[in-house]
Structures are given as C-alpha cells and as structure tokens.
Design brief:
The chain is an alpha+beta fold and about 130 residues long. The chain contains four helices and three strands. It starts with 15 loop residues before the first helix and ends in an 8-residue tail after the last helix.
Length: about 130
C-alpha cells in the first residue's frame, strides 16, 4: 500500500522546512504588537544556508561563526528584508523547543539590526534567555 503516511491536515504531514517557516512566522507575530508599524514594510524570508559571500574561505579562515541570519535595509524599490538561515539553526538545536528559541532570538537580533536598536529593546525578555 502506497500513499501518504498521515493526512495532509495534521502537523506530522508538514515537512521540516515548512515547520521551520512556521517558527519564523511565530517569532515575527510575537513582535508585531509592539513593532507592527515598523515591520509592515519588511519582508521576512528563509534560506537553507548563508551565501558563500557571507562565509570565510575555508574552515577557520572566516571572520566569525556561521551567521544565523541577515538584515538588508531597503534600497531603492527593494524593501527591507530579514533572512533567516534554516540549516545552521537546526544544526545548533537539540530539540524543537531549542530551535524555536534560537529562531526567535535570531529574528529579534536581525530586526534590532534593521531598526538600529538593541535586541533587548526589541524584545525585553531577550537578555533573560541568554
């Protein structure tokens, strides 16, 4: 017998990347009550890995650790964007709760960078989780 393992409407039927997208959307939704006006023109996206331009040239030669995300300010017709990298965050988390916390912190950090604020200003509970 071949067919889906679970009906499409149950959470187990969603792919890992779809569940990750949901975590990013949840993190953004948690910020909207306070920052909705500032975030209304910001696009949020997920990429699997950072582009090579953000990485060093080989192991140990980069400027720092592998980034979890980036914030791109608006340029001309292009809106501001926050991009979250799925694979580095998944590699650092041991379970779904840890992944959710890492995703939220990364979204907060990138929004803070975009707005020119500290992460603790964007999310007052940020420092408590560190």
């Amino acid at each position: 017998m071949r067919g889906p393992l679970a009906p499409s409407h149950v959470p187990i039927a969603r792919s890992r990347s779809e569940r990750f997208d949901d975590l990013v959307l949840d993190a953004v939704d948690r910020l909207r009550p306070q920052w909705g006006r500032q975030l209304s023109a910001v696009e949020f996206a997920v990429e699997d890995v950072p582009p090579l331009s953000e990485l060093g040239d080989g192991p140990g030669l980069g400027e720092g650790p592998i980034p979890f995300g980036r914030a791109d300010p608006a340029r001309g017709q292009d809106p501001a964007a926050v991009v979250i990298y799925r694979r580095p965050l998944e590699a650092r988390s041991r379970d779904r709760d840890t992944l959710g916390a890492l995703v939220h912190d990364t979204v907060v950090e990138q929004v803070a960078t975009l707005l020119g604020l500290s992460p603790d200003t964007v999310d007052p509970g940020y420092d408590d989780r560190r």
